[in-house]
Amino acid sequence: MSKLLRGTLILTAATFFSKFLGLIFVIPFEWLVGTEGGALYGYAYTPYAIILSVATLGLPLAVSKFVSKYNALDDYITGRRLMRSGLVLMSLSGILAFLALFFLAEWVAGLLVGNNGVKGNSVEDVKMVIQLVSTALIIVPSMSLIRGYFQGFQSMGPTALSQVVEQIVRVGFILISAFLIVIVFKGDVSTAVGYATFAAFISALASLLILVWYWKKRKPHLDKLMKNSKNHKVPLVKMYKELIQYAVPFVAVGLAIPIYSTIDMFTINNALQHGLGYTQDTAENYYAIMQTYSQKLIMIPVSLSTGLALTVIPLITNLYTKKDFSTMQQQITKTFEIVLFLTIPAGVGLSLLGLPAYSVLFENFIGIGGYVLTWYAPTAILFALFTVTAAILQGINQQRFAVYSLLAGVLVKISLNYIFIANFGIAGAVICTNLGYLLSITINLIIIRRQTNYSFKPVFKRTILIGMFVALMVSAVVLTKWAVESMVGTDYKEFFTSVTVLLTGVAAGAGVYLYMSHFSGLLQHIFGDRLNRFLRKKRARSKR
Fold it and tell me: Is the pLDDT reported for residue 538 higher than 70?
């Protein structure tokens, strides 16, 4: 199995599991704190994500690219020197970021909720949760840098395990603390959400301990590599100049989803209140449903692109440095095929089953939630494509174009968001996000074509095939949904109705899509020889 596919599977499995836990935890969390508490939780994490990206300066992934480049040149000393100095830099930037977010919390809270009435979250509540989540900034930058160092060796295990442990600890802390505060001690929802945001610090500490354990375990092998290493004796100033050239685009790409979420955070409430006459608490319900709950669902298929991006960057950098352009083209094609094969049916299927999917998981505002999810789910395809195309640009040293494309998309989002929401409601926010990402992806694809002379013909052919199978999948889901609804009804407040429609729809859609993919050979083509061997063994057993 190729390094790309192996690394992708490891990181995708870990990221998928983490995202799945992130989805599962919001179900009891929503029961405990409601949509108002969900909005409060979102208010904390969106500015945190922005400040975190600035605090890390894009260095963790830039280190991955840097280390991979020098490893390809048989220079393991330069990468080690970079990590040592980088840890000092990340520790300082983390402390500064913590202080900045902590002391700006009240100002940000005032911008978000202001004095729009007695209903909804207060400025003090928003200030508190932002200050509590800011404590994680002390640890996360250094932790991320260590992950980047391991990824530079194309070793994805440390990142994968630390991600899983981090999420398990975070989810456990959130649910236990929320249950004790709300149910046992009858405390305020805002206090429960405060503890939920502080979980970011606790979980980051757990993740850091896992990485330290990996470091101690692997240090003898890494030291052995250094003994036989070349040494280009790159001065620190030159080293950081090169690193910053890599890092700035990583900051931009890492900020993509948080920037779009921030634009929504500052415009959804105002546009719904002033454009459509909603009250603050109603506007906050829409915001929470979109950004805190629905986004958890659509980020599950996006977890694939995260795994792909983390794997693609050091691998393509390595091939680009060695000037192995033929293999690089094959890896780019494989990357596109994997992401399209998995995200297109996932996004489309989740959109078709938006109402039953939302109602199975959440109990408040089911009609609104289903409507939002139906609109929002296909955006997962665009999230994934932007992440992967930006990663390819970074791998071929054209990272500045990832910044330009992001800025172009963000400009579209800022220009149209308020107008679209005020005229089309919450769907307007989704439409503007899609328009912004479509522009960014188009720019990225044009640059990839120009800089690598890459031929999109193989990907185009596979996309047409995937599109045909998705069309058959859509027919199967729609017919199954109609048939099941005729038997169990359409009252999605009933759990039995929701789960029956959802499970039968998923089974029918996935069954048709996977069968056609296998029958046509597409499945075997994308996932390679190992899948073929598995299918042959399975057929051999069935004949016995």
Answer: no
Tokens of 143: 């932790």
Checking if the pLDDT of 408 tops 90, the result is yes
Report the 10 Å Cβ neighbour count for 492.
Answer: 21
Contacts of 146 (CB under 8 A, 6+ apart): 83, 87, 158, 208, 211, 215
List the structure tokens of 318.
């390595």
Q: Which conformational region is residue 244 in: left (phi greater than 0), alpha (psi within -120 to 50 degrees), or beta?
A: alpha
**Which tens digits make up the pLDDT trace of 5-24?**
565 567 667 767 777 777 67
DSSP state of 491: -
User: Percent helix, strand and coil across the chain, each rounded to 5?
Assistant: 90, 0, 10
Count the neighbouring beta carbons within 10 Å of the beta carbon of residue 180. 13
Task: Summarize pLDDT for 112-168 with one digit per residue, the tens.
Answer: 776 554 566 788 899 999 999 999 999 988 888 898 888 888 777 888 889 899 999
CA 100, 103, 106: angle at the middle one, nearest 5?
125
Q: Using only the alpha carbons of the chain, give its radius of gyration.
A: 24
